[in-house]
Amino acid sequence: MDTVSSVELRKMFAEAAELVRSQNEVLSRLDSQCGDGDHGTTMMRAMEILEGATGSSANARSLSETLREAGWNVMGVDGGASSALLGSFIAGMGDTELGDAADCATMARCLESGLQSVQKRTKAKPGDKTMMDALVPAVEAFEAAAANGDTLGEAMKSAAAAAEAGAASTRNLVARHGRAKYLGEKTLGYADAGATSIALLFHGFSVALAKTEEN
Q1: What does DSSP say about strands 3-5 and 101-103: parallel, antiparallel, or unpaired?
Q2: Torsion of the alpha carbons at 155, 209, 205 and 6, rounded to the nearest 10
Q3: What integer pLDDT is reported at residue 56 of this predicted model?
Q4: Does residue 103 carry a pLDDT above 90?
């Protein structure tokens, strides 16, 4: 597989949505440690929007238009910072001109554009126990794989592994950003909900592209 078209994008969001639905209670339990405990519910609503935005009607639009519209709609989900930042990431991906399909190098630029959009909205960095602990290494891993000449599927697999490792690392971190920072040492011992959901997102993307390459 050399490119991602609207068909592959739809499969990527569908796989990610299925993972989030299966883990929504886990996400909410993690969030209940220092938040409102609604992260799983928020992510399910966000993924439903992404699935809808990349449905069959999306074939008539460019990938950039689809991503921008989907991202803006996710920003409208009532879920606090998590939905706003996820929406920013998706909409930001659409700031890269993708046309009807994106190859590995173009997808790397697309993900970097999404990351930059998030960085404009938050001061959080890796090490602060937030979604950035998964998102930043995922994007960096994809970019490195693309530069190495890997296929789209291989690059996304690398991104998913980096996101998972980043999310797992948050168990040993003390929150230093947002409301959770006021809990200090009490935030040790569990993974950040936002980082975990980003890991699920990239894992879903990777599974979808792997299935496409097999067919």
Answers
A1: antiparallel
A2: 110
A3: 63
A4: yes
% of the chain exceeding 70 in pLDDT: 92
Q: Which domains does the chain have, with CATH numbers?
A: 3-214 (1.25.40.340)
Angular region, 62: left φ>0, alpha ψ -120 to 50, beta rest: beta
Structure tokens given for 40: 């799983």
One-letter amino acid of 207: V
- Mean pLDDT taken over the chain: 90
Give percent above pLDDT 90 in the chain.
Answer: 72
DSSP characters for 145-208? HHHTT--HHHHHHHHHHHHHHHHHHGGG----SSGGGGGGGGGTTS--HHHHHHHHHHHHHHHH
Residue 58 has pLDDT above 60, yes or no: no
The amino acid at residue 92 is G
**CA geometry: angle at 196 spanning 194 and 128, to 5°?**
55
Q: What is the pLDDT of residue 36?
A: 72
The residue behind tokens 């991602």 is: 4
